[in-house]
Every structure is written in C-alpha cells, then in structure tokens.
C-alpha cells in the first residue's frame, strides 16, 4: 500500500506544549494522529467502500512477489564436526 503524507499548520508553541505533555504520558503524536485519521476514515467513508478498498489492498499485497530470504551469515567460523 502506498502511503500519502498529510501536512497541516499548527502554532509552534502549542505544538511544543502538546508534544511535551504527550511525552509525559508516553504518548506519541504521530500515533495519535494516525488513529484520529483512521477514525475519520471509518466515520465518513461508507462501509461498502471501505470493504472494496480493503479487498483491493489485500489482493495487491498477495500479488507482490516475496523477496527471497538469504541464509544468515555464519561469521566465517566452521562448526562442522570432523
């Protein structure tokens, strides 16, 4: 899935205060914003449209070729029994 970037304007002093107080509560602004956008998506996009998009994204993910897994490097030591 391709990600889009959202840019908003917000007073810098308010942003500093927000991030400061969120960090005291072990909360991340990025995560909170993503959760809020997800809730807006679920509120405003009809269920049928969301199901269509979810199905389309899952088909795209299944169609992507998997990258081959490389064997782990052994660090040059030979652990064979002789």
UniProtKB/TrEMBL annotation:
It holds the Pfam family DUF6103. Residues 53-63 have a biased composition (Basic and acidic residues). Residues 53-82 are annotated as: Disordered. InterPro entries: DUF6103. This is Uncharacterized protein.
